[in-house]
Amino acid sequence: MDLRRILSLDGGGIRGIVSCRWLAAVDAALGAAGKPAIPASFDLFAGSSTGGLIACGLALGHPPDLLAGLYQTQRHEIFPGMARRLWSRATRLLSDGPSAPRYDGRGLEAVLADVFGDARLGDCRVPTLVTSYDTISRSPVIFKSFKHEHADLRVRDVCRATAAAPTYFPAHPLRVEGRDCALIDGGIVANNPTACAIAEALRKDAKVQGTRDLVVASIGSGERTRPIDLRSAREWGAVEWAIPIIDVLFDGNAESVDYIARHVVGDGYFRMQAPLTIGLDDLDDVSDTNIAALERLAEDYVAQSTTQRMLAALAQRI
């Protein structure tokens, strides 16, 4: 199995629209260099959370612009507004208690069913790796389209599992390799799944003798810059940290993986990432204003000369 060329996709909720726009720029750079478009230019896809949805979509033949359009048109189904949230919370009060997740997950599940239907993970045209975490066994679950035991899992179940961010969506029940699991967001394991993909390539590809043989395109979804001041960090308890700690964990592990990959892969590592201004960083802000701002962020980043040079270099290495 040839896994030399890796495409890795971070989590980030609705900010997946940024990742899709950047993937469209990768496609354009590949075309300008006379290379085939995604997915034919890569040997392995890896995705966490919203990046897992995108990775599966690409692997099943959906182009980046179509996936970006889904974020545009289906965002209010995935992340319903206040009225629907309050009604959902009221109906779940007896069953889930007062601290139920912000969303019941039904809208997300409906969108995934519409996009992926009954497609199976084994239907992916490119080997695809998607991260999740099982709260019962307290261990990572790494879904692999090329693993016999995972091939018949529905893509929509894998995507629902990897996107189940704690406090936002309920855990997803799924039987995996004969074991009942309660699966939550892949970002808990690796919000930037690049290291998982590198390990898989080194393990599976006999032609890859070391990390310097790899070409890795790592696509972020925007980097948070909102500070948590010293007083808050010292005084917050469980209630105050409940949601911010998810963001801190996701960001921290993404940046640590970026640091490792940059050093072990070297010139073959290409990372697309840009700082988010305060107000653009929420996982679930689907307002028209925020979506327009994210689109502008993605566009401005691609327009930078440094980004254009990086994309051209990536296309040549592919």
TrEMBL record:
PNPLA domain ranges (all copies): 7-198
InterPro entries: Acyl_Trfase/lysoPLipase (IPR016035), PNPLA_dom (IPR002641)
Record bears the keyword ATP-binding: no
Motif (DGA/G) on chain: 185-187
Motif GXGXXG location, chain numbering: 11-16
Active site residues according to the UniProt entry: 49 (nucleophile), 185 (proton acceptor)
Keyword Hydrolase among UniProt keywords: yes
Pfam family, one: Patatin
Superkingdom classification of source: Bacteria
Residue span of motif GXSXG: 47-51
Keyword terms: Hydrolase, Lipid degradation, Lipid metabolism
Name of the featured protein: Patatin
Organism expressing this protein natively: Cognatilysobacter xinjiangensis
